[in-house]
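Thread title: Can someone regenerate the structure for this chain?

I was given the following input by a collaborator and told the matching structure tokens would be attached. They weren't. Posting the sequence so someone can regenerate them.
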Amino acid sequence: MLHSNTIHSIADRAFQDLKSLQVLKMSYNRVKEINKDTFQGLEGLVRLHMDHNRIEFINPEAFYGLTTLQLVHLEGNLLQQLHPDTFVTLRHSQVFKVSSV
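Best answer:
Regenerated them for you:
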């Protein structure tokens, strides 16, 4: 769990070897953007908690390949808009919590 730290950025492919990781909690950090390859390799991810960061931008391809993702928490960020295709490839996603858009 990487919750409540002072993480400002996530390197591309930082999690690429964690194919079995199901829950990623990075809430209450200082992340400003989610790049195209940020979550690459998280093939088993089911729940993603990125709420209460400082996210201003999410690359529309950031969630490509996350076919098992079901829950995305993004509330409490600085998002002004999301590209219409941001979540288009997610087949199983059921809950999106985005309150700042």
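The beta strands are 23-25, 33-34, 47-49, 57-58, 71-73, 95-97.
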